[in-house]
Amino acid sequence: MRVDKYLWAIRYFKTRSIATNACKKGHVKIGGDSVKPSRNVYPTDKLEIRKNQIHYKIEILDLPKSRVGAKLVAIYCTDITPKENLEKLELLKYSQDYYRKKGAGRPTKKDRRELDDLKENAKDDIE
């Protein structure tokens, strides 16, 4: 089975074209080497996938005949992603909450004061 089709079938990517683009950009690796979307995968292969700034690692257990339901994904792969990578995901969630949305306009006086306090605390931590 093609690697892009496999990633789509186990619901790692929403569409097959997104999976294909990820392969073309070098976000999917097998054995440390970037792979083309047409590369065949086999059981016991270990994939490294970069998605949303996180490096996920999965081991292929079996190949599905077509796209599977979310409850059946565990039959076809196991997630062997290190815990440090998943902790980065939590940090990304917190950092994204801080940024202002596009089109929100200029920072208010309260926002500016919070930024100043944050900068002062960062200077104190460095010293």
TrEMBL record:
Q: Where is the composition biased (Basic and acidic residues)?
A: 111-127
Keywords in UniProt for this one?
Answer: DNA-binding, RNA-binding, Stress response
Give any Pfam family that matches.
S4
Which stretches make up the RNA-binding S4 domain? 1-64
Q: Where is this region: Disordered?
A: 102-127
Q: Does the keyword Signal apply?
A: no
Which CDD domains does the annotation name? S4
DNA-binding recorded as keyword: yes
**Gene Ontology molecular functions:** DNA binding; ribosomal large subunit binding; single-stranded RNA binding
For the biological process aspect of GO, one term held by this record is: cellular response to heat
Family note: Belongs to the HSP15 family.
Q: What is this protein called?
A: Ribosome-associated heat shock protein implicated in the recycling of the 50S subunit
